[in-house]
Amino acid sequence: FFHFYAGICSALKLTVPSHTIHGIEGQPLHLTVDYNFNATASEIQIIWLFEKSQSNPKYLLGSVNQRVFPDLEYQHKFTLIPPNASLRINQLHISDEGNYVVKVNVRGNGTTAASQKIQVAVDVPVTKPTVHTEPSSGVVEHVGNITLKCTVDRGTRVSYQWMKNGKRLHAGPNYTFS
After folding, report:
1. How far apart are the C-alpha atoms of 38 and 42, rounded to whole Å?
2. What's the burial of 74, exposed, middle or buried (CB within 10 Å: 0-12/13-18/19+)?
3. Residue 23 burial (C-beta neighbours within 10 Å; 0-12, 13-18, 19+)
4. In the beta sheet, which residues pair with residue 24?
5. pTM of this prediction?
6. Phi/psi at 51 (5° precision)
7. How many other CB atoms sit within 10 Å of the CB of residue 118?
8. Domain containing residue 60
């Protein structure tokens, strides 16, 4: 019985990227989905949902065969061209970070369903850094300390690295980092 049941389940195979997909704020992002069904299908339904942690999943859009049914709130934000199940996010916003759930229902000899989750992270490009010097004159020969402060206005997952003559600086008797 188990083998027979597993055979029916495997009739619909849904493949999505297994790693987190990184997009850039303001750019479009394509979420690639492949599915195949090893029998004749009379109807194919595709549904896309979006979920953030601690909130209910939101319906984005869906299709039955060739007709697309968008949530009117998001109708200009997402594109789906059935029978392809891939989703295009037309312009990424930082609030689009989260999990996208695709569900495919196939009606043939009975109805078979499969769903998968795609994790999306939105990166904000790092702006040009500014460096402030204290004291502002920047000339401290043989006495005292000079402090260099580096900041960026925008950017996600920012890391800082100080270099001197093209070589990475490390903490030591002459340099401290905070």
Report:
1. 13
2. middle
3. buried
4. 123
5. 0.75
6. -135, 135
7. 20
8. 12-123
- What's the gap between Cα 91 and its chain centre? 12
| Residues 112 and 60 occupy one common structural domain | yes
Residue 76 lies inside a defined structural domain of this protein: yes
List C-alpha distances in Å: 47 to 71, 75, 114, 139: 11, 14, 11, 64
CA distance 161 to 131: 13
- For residue 67, give both structure tokens: 């007709």
pLDDT in tens, 16-43: 999 999 999 999 999 999 999 877 888 9
The number of folded domains in the chain is 2
Per-residue pLDDT tens digits for 95-140: 999 999 999 999 988 889 999 999 999 999 999 999 998 877 656 5
Query: Do 113 and 142 belong together in one domain?
Result: no
- Cα Rg, the chain, nearest whole Å: 25
Residues 90, 79 contacting (CB under 8 angstroms): yes
Pair 50, 80 in one domain? yes
Helices (H), the chain: 2-9
CA dist 134 and 97 (Å) reads: 38
Are both 103 and 66 inside the same structural domain?
Answer: yes
Judged by DSSP in three states, 90 sits in: coil
d(CA 30, CA 36): 19
